[in-house]
Protein backbone atom coordinates (compact mmCIF):
# COMPACT_ATOMS: atom_id res chain seq x y z
CA UNK A 1 0.00 0.00 0.00
CA UNK A 2 1.34 3.42 -0.95
CA UNK A 3 0.33 7.01 -0.30
CA UNK A 4 -0.32 8.50 -3.73
CA UNK A 5 -0.86 12.16 -4.58
CA UNK A 6 -3.05 12.90 -7.61
CA UNK A 7 -2.50 16.40 -8.99
CA UNK A 8 -5.14 17.39 -11.55
CA UNK A 9 -7.82 20.06 -11.86
CA UNK A 10 -10.27 17.75 -13.66
CA UNK A 11 -12.56 16.40 -10.91
CA UNK A 12 -13.85 13.57 -13.11
CA UNK A 13 -10.37 12.27 -13.80
CA UNK A 14 -9.38 12.60 -10.15
CA UNK A 15 -12.46 10.61 -9.11
CA UNK A 16 -11.67 7.91 -11.67
CA UNK A 17 -8.00 7.59 -10.73
CA UNK A 18 -8.65 7.79 -6.98
CA UNK A 19 -11.27 5.05 -7.20
CA UNK A 20 -8.92 2.86 -9.22
CA UNK A 21 -6.10 3.29 -6.71
CA UNK A 22 -8.27 2.75 -3.64
CA UNK A 23 -9.48 -0.54 -5.08
CA UNK A 24 -5.82 -1.57 -4.96
CA UNK A 25 -5.72 -0.49 -1.29
CA UNK A 26 -3.60 2.63 -1.82
CA UNK A 27 -4.14 5.81 0.19
CA UNK A 28 -5.02 8.68 -2.10
CA UNK A 29 -4.71 12.43 -1.64
CA UNK A 30 -5.72 14.82 -4.40
CA UNK A 31 -5.07 18.50 -5.09
CA UNK A 32 -6.09 20.69 -8.01
CA UNK A 33 -3.16 23.10 -8.29
CA UNK A 34 0.59 23.17 -8.47
CA UNK A 35 0.88 25.33 -5.35
CA UNK A 36 -1.02 22.77 -3.25
CA UNK A 37 1.00 19.97 -4.83
CA UNK A 38 4.24 21.64 -3.74
CA UNK A 39 2.97 21.92 -0.16
CA UNK A 40 1.95 18.26 -0.11
CA UNK A 41 5.19 17.00 -1.63
CA UNK A 42 7.34 19.06 0.71
CA UNK A 43 5.80 17.25 3.70
CA UNK A 44 7.79 14.17 2.74
CA UNK A 45 5.08 11.56 3.32
CA UNK A 46 4.03 11.00 -0.33
CA UNK A 47 5.30 7.78 -1.94
CA UNK A 48 4.51 8.78 -5.51
CA UNK A 49 2.68 11.60 -7.31
CA UNK A 50 0.65 11.53 -10.51
CA UNK A 51 1.07 14.98 -11.97
CA UNK A 52 -0.95 16.68 -14.70
CA UNK A 53 1.19 18.88 -16.94
CA UNK A 54 -1.50 21.50 -17.61
CA UNK A 55 -2.24 22.90 -14.15
CA UNK A 56 -4.13 26.17 -13.65
CA UNK A 57 -1.37 27.99 -11.78
CA UNK A 58 2.03 26.30 -12.25
CA UNK A 59 3.02 24.35 -15.32
CA UNK A 60 3.66 20.76 -14.28
CA UNK A 61 7.10 20.76 -15.89
CA UNK A 62 8.11 23.87 -13.96
CA UNK A 63 6.88 22.21 -10.79
CA UNK A 64 9.08 19.18 -11.41
CA UNK A 65 12.09 21.37 -12.13
CA UNK A 66 11.59 23.30 -8.89
CA UNK A 67 11.14 20.15 -6.81
CA UNK A 68 14.26 18.52 -8.17
CA UNK A 69 16.25 21.72 -7.62
CA UNK A 70 15.16 21.57 -3.98
CA UNK A 71 16.46 18.01 -3.74
CA UNK A 72 12.99 16.46 -3.54
CA UNK A 73 13.24 12.96 -5.06
CA UNK A 74 9.62 11.88 -4.64
CA UNK A 75 8.79 9.67 -7.65
CA UNK A 76 6.66 11.54 -10.19
CA UNK A 77 4.64 10.21 -13.12
CA UNK A 78 3.36 12.76 -15.60
CA UNK A 79 -0.22 12.49 -16.81
CA UNK A 80 -0.38 14.41 -20.06
CA UNK A 81 -2.35 14.90 -23.25
CA UNK A 82 0.86 16.05 -24.92
CA UNK A 83 2.05 13.34 -27.27
CA UNK A 84 4.93 15.20 -28.91
CA UNK A 85 8.21 13.35 -28.25
CA UNK A 86 10.08 16.55 -27.39
CA UNK A 87 7.49 17.43 -24.72
CA UNK A 88 7.73 14.00 -23.14
CA UNK A 89 11.52 14.06 -23.38
CA UNK A 90 11.61 17.43 -21.61
CA UNK A 91 9.57 16.08 -18.71
CA UNK A 92 11.98 13.17 -18.30
CA UNK A 93 15.02 15.43 -18.51
CA UNK A 94 13.60 17.65 -15.79
CA UNK A 95 13.22 14.71 -13.43
CA UNK A 96 9.95 12.86 -14.06
CA UNK A 97 10.28 9.11 -13.55
CA UNK A 98 7.76 8.17 -16.23
CA UNK A 99 4.82 9.54 -18.17
CA UNK A 100 1.40 8.24 -19.16
CA UNK A 101 -0.57 9.89 -21.96
CA UNK A 102 -4.28 10.67 -21.67
CA UNK A 103 -6.57 8.93 -22.29
CA UNK A 104 -4.88 5.99 -20.60
CA UNK A 105 -5.62 2.33 -20.01
CA UNK A 106 -6.21 1.84 -16.25
CA UNK A 107 -4.13 -1.35 -16.17
CA UNK A 108 -1.24 0.38 -17.89
CA UNK A 109 -1.37 3.23 -15.36
CA UNK A 110 -1.39 0.76 -12.46
CA UNK A 111 1.52 -1.16 -13.96
CA UNK A 112 3.57 2.02 -14.40
CA UNK A 113 2.85 3.07 -10.81
CA UNK A 114 3.87 -0.33 -9.45
CA UNK A 115 7.06 -0.33 -11.50
CA UNK A 116 8.11 3.09 -10.18
CA UNK A 117 7.18 2.18 -6.60
CA UNK A 118 9.08 -1.08 -6.84
CA UNK A 119 12.22 0.67 -7.98
CA UNK A 120 11.97 3.62 -5.59
CA UNK A 121 11.53 1.28 -2.64
CA UNK A 122 14.57 -0.70 -3.72
CA UNK A 123 12.68 -3.98 -3.66
CA UNK A 124 15.04 -5.75 -5.98
CA UNK A 125 14.93 -9.52 -5.67
CA UNK A 126 18.23 -10.82 -4.36
CA UNK A 127 19.54 -14.33 -3.81
CA UNK A 128 20.08 -14.69 -0.07
CA UNK A 129 23.30 -16.60 -0.63
CA UNK A 130 24.73 -14.10 -3.09
CA UNK A 131 27.75 -12.19 -1.91
CA UNK A 132 27.57 -8.52 -2.77
CA UNK A 133 29.79 -5.61 -1.86
CA UNK A 134 28.11 -2.57 -0.33
CA UNK A 135 30.27 -0.18 -2.34
CA UNK A 136 30.99 -0.11 -6.06
CA UNK A 137 33.72 2.13 -7.40
CA UNK A 138 33.53 3.21 -11.03
CA UNK A 139 35.89 6.19 -11.00
CA UNK A 140 35.03 8.99 -10.64
CA UNK A 141 31.74 7.51 -9.37
CA UNK A 142 31.05 5.49 -6.22
CA UNK A 143 27.75 3.71 -5.49
CA UNK A 144 26.70 2.90 -1.93
CA UNK A 145 24.29 0.03 -2.58
CA UNK A 146 23.01 -0.09 0.99
CA UNK A 147 22.26 3.62 1.33
CA UNK A 148 21.34 3.89 -2.37
CA UNK A 149 23.59 6.91 -2.71
CA UNK A 150 25.87 7.97 -5.55
CA UNK A 151 28.99 10.11 -5.28
CA UNK A 152 31.11 11.76 -7.97
CA UNK A 153 34.59 12.83 -6.92
CA UNK A 154 33.41 12.53 -3.32
CA UNK A 155 30.37 14.81 -3.71
CA UNK A 156 26.90 13.30 -3.49
CA UNK A 157 24.92 13.25 -6.73
CA UNK A 158 21.16 13.46 -6.38
CA UNK A 159 19.43 10.90 -8.60
CA UNK A 160 15.74 10.25 -9.09
CA UNK A 161 14.75 6.69 -8.05
CA UNK A 162 14.53 5.36 -11.60
CA UNK A 163 17.84 6.97 -12.54
CA UNK A 164 19.46 5.18 -9.63
CA UNK A 165 17.81 1.91 -10.62
CA UNK A 166 19.23 2.09 -14.14
CA UNK A 167 22.71 3.00 -12.88
CA UNK A 168 22.73 0.28 -10.23
CA UNK A 169 21.67 -2.41 -12.70
CA UNK A 170 24.42 -1.41 -15.13
CA UNK A 171 26.95 -1.16 -12.29
CA UNK A 172 26.32 -4.62 -10.87
CA UNK A 173 26.60 -5.96 -14.43
CA UNK A 174 29.81 -4.02 -15.03
CA UNK A 175 31.80 -5.34 -17.98
CA UNK A 176 28.74 -6.87 -19.66
CA UNK A 177 26.79 -5.15 -22.41
CA UNK A 178 23.17 -5.16 -21.26
CA UNK A 179 20.35 -4.99 -23.79
CA UNK A 180 17.75 -2.25 -23.63
CA UNK A 181 15.06 -4.92 -23.24
CA UNK A 182 16.80 -6.44 -20.21
CA UNK A 183 17.20 -3.08 -18.53
CA UNK A 184 13.57 -2.14 -19.19
CA UNK A 185 12.30 -5.47 -17.83
CA UNK A 186 14.39 -5.10 -14.69
CA UNK A 187 13.61 -1.44 -14.00
CA UNK A 188 10.11 -0.87 -15.42
CA UNK A 189 8.82 -4.44 -15.44
CA UNK A 190 8.11 -4.35 -19.19
CA UNK A 191 10.13 -4.20 -22.39
CA UNK A 192 7.45 -2.34 -24.32
CA UNK A 193 6.74 1.34 -24.68
CA UNK A 194 9.55 2.71 -22.48
CA UNK A 195 12.54 2.72 -24.85
CA UNK A 196 12.49 6.52 -25.11
CA UNK A 197 12.12 6.71 -21.32
CA UNK A 198 15.26 4.59 -20.89
CA UNK A 199 17.23 6.75 -23.32
CA UNK A 200 16.22 9.90 -21.44
CA UNK A 201 17.24 8.39 -18.10
CA UNK A 202 20.65 7.43 -19.49
CA UNK A 203 21.05 10.94 -20.92
CA UNK A 204 20.29 12.49 -17.54
CA UNK A 205 22.68 10.09 -15.79
CA UNK A 206 25.48 11.09 -18.14
CA UNK A 207 24.93 14.76 -17.36
CA UNK A 208 25.10 14.04 -13.64
CA UNK A 209 27.92 11.46 -13.38
CA UNK A 210 29.94 12.15 -16.52
CA UNK A 211 29.80 11.16 -20.16
CA UNK A 212 32.41 8.40 -19.93
CA UNK A 213 30.81 6.10 -17.36
CA UNK A 214 27.99 4.57 -19.43
CA UNK A 215 28.87 3.46 -22.94
CA UNK A 216 26.34 2.90 -25.74
CA UNK A 217 26.35 -0.34 -27.73
CA UNK A 218 24.63 0.84 -30.89
CA UNK A 219 21.58 -1.21 -31.76
CA UNK A 220 21.82 -3.22 -28.54
CA UNK A 221 22.03 -1.43 -25.22
CA UNK A 222 24.47 -0.01 -22.69
CA UNK A 223 27.69 -0.94 -20.90
CA UNK A 224 29.77 0.19 -17.96
CA UNK A 225 33.23 -1.10 -18.91
CA UNK A 226 35.00 -3.50 -16.58
CA UNK A 227 37.78 -2.18 -14.38
CA UNK A 228 41.28 -2.63 -15.80
CA UNK A 229 42.24 -6.24 -15.18
CA UNK A 230 38.70 -7.04 -14.11
CA UNK A 231 36.13 -9.38 -15.61
CA UNK A 232 32.51 -9.04 -16.56
CA UNK A 233 30.02 -9.22 -13.73
CA UNK A 234 27.51 -11.99 -13.51
CA UNK A 235 23.97 -10.99 -14.41
CA UNK A 236 21.81 -10.43 -11.36
Essential attributes:
8 helices; alpha/beta; four-stranded antiparallel β-sheet; Rossmann fold; 236 residues; five-stranded parallel β-sheet; single chain; Arc Repressor Mutant, subunit A
Summarize the structure in words.
- This protein is an alpha/beta fold and 236 residues long.
- The chain is 40% helix and 20% strand.
- It is built from 8 helices and 12 strands.
- The strands form 3 sheets. The chain has a 5-stranded parallel beta sheet, with helices on both faces. A 4-stranded antiparallel beta sheet has the order 6-7-8-9, with helices on one face. Strands 10-12-11 form a 3-stranded antiparallel beta sheet.
- The longest helix has 15 residues, at 106-120.
- The chain is globular, with a radius of gyration of 18 Å.
- Residues 123-132 have low confidence and may be disordered.
Brief digest:
The chain has helices at residues 11-23, 34-43, 60-69, 85-94, 106-120, 161-172, 180-188, 195-209; strands spanning 3-7, 27-31, 48-52, 76-80, 98-101, 135-138, 141-144, 149-152, 155-157, 178-179, 215-217, 221-223. The radius of gyration is 18 Å and the shape is globular.
Amino acid sequence: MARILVVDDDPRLVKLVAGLLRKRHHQVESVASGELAMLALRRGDIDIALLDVNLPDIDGLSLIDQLRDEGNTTPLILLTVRTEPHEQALGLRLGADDYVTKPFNPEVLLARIQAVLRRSAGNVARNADEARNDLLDIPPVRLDLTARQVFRDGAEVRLAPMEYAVLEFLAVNRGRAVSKEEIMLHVWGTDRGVSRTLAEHVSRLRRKIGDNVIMTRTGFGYLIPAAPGGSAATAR
